[in-house]
Design goal:
Bound molecules: S-adenosylmethionine
Number of domains: 1
Strand content: 15-25%
Number of helices: 10
Number of strands: 7
CATH superfamily: Vaccinia Virus protein VP39
């Protein structure tokens, strides 16, 4: 895989998705796109989904990292690959007016969409920054919690993402991410396919390698809080080898 080509392809894919009204991401492909149903299947409550900017839920996640993160009033939370902002808006409610939720995304059209959502719905404690999660536009030791939803699998340098996550977290901070990993080998043609990579499958790491990459960055108490077979069309042909996981890890 050519890193630059892959990253550009991912950026172009999500730029196109951000600019369509009825988006079709990786968890949904079909003529009818029911975002509420997809959101519930991924792990959000109906209440969560109904109290969000409507355009923030694009059916692009594979879990609900905010539910796992035990966010408290006053905390600063960072969302890696924030898309149209769904998890940033949910996190913003939890951290309240004394806290802050920051989203980072490398796709300008996604950042624009998230910013427009924030303005339309009057969110004051959110910020969306354009940038790559391999080189986060975030200060050292400045964040209490990091969340991410179906994004790190898209990175061409996962070790670097976890190193950066460690750098920006405060001591005692936590990493709580939802992502896709594999159990068993994927066919070569899937690994080589840019479409499969952009759909969060081709770049998914084998589960133990994913955890190892987090540990290598310095995190402690790395564990899988929950896992399930990723039961969406893009993974159907792959015999249950694609798993959706929630991972927690700490900077101590
Ligand atoms: C599958 S979507 C998930 C969006 C969002 N987390 C959600 O659940 O709706 C992936 C997002 O990650 C962004 N992304 C992918 N690779 C990235 C990278 N290396 N750095 C920053 N953003 C990235 C894409 O632009 C896209 O908005």
């Amino acid at each position: 895989m050519d890193e630059r080509k892959t990253k550009n392809f991912v950026k172009e894919t999500y730029s196109a998705i951000a600019q369509t009204e009825s988006s079709c991401g990786c968890s949904c492909c079909g003529d009818t796109v029911d975002f509420l149903a997809i959101g519930k299947k991924i792990g959000y409550s109906e209440n969560d989904l109904k109290n969000l900017p409507e355009a923030a839920n694009m059916g692009l996640g594979c879990g609900n990292p905010v539910a796992l993160a035990s966010l408290k009033e006053g905390e600063t939370v960072l969302d890696l690959g924030s898309g149209a902002g769904i998890d940033v808006f949910l996190a913003a409610k939890k951290v309240g007016s004394t806290g802050k939720a920051i989203g980072v995304d490398m796709t300008q059209a996604m950042v624009d969409r998230a910013k427009a959502n924030a303005v339309d719905y009057g969110y004051k404690n959110v910020e969306f920054r354009l940038g790559e999660i391999e080189k986060m536009p975030v200060d050292d030791d400045s964040v209490d919690a990091i969340i991410s939803n179906c994004v790190i699998n898209l990175s061409t340098n996962k070790d670097q993402v976890f190193k950066e996550a460690y750098r920006v977290l405060k001591n005692g901070g936590r990493l709580m991410v939802s992502d896709l990993v594999t159990e068993g080998e994927l066919p070569d043609e899937v690994r080589q396919s840019l479409d499969a990579w952009a759909c969060c499958i081709g770049g998914a790491l084998e589960k133990q390698k994913y955890l190892e990459s987090i540990r290598k960055a310095g995190f402690k108490d790395v564990k899988i809080a929950s896992e399930a077979i990723y039961d969406f069309d893009v993974a159907k042909e792959l015999d249950g080898k694609i798993k959706s996981i929630h991972v927690e890890a700490y900077k101590k």
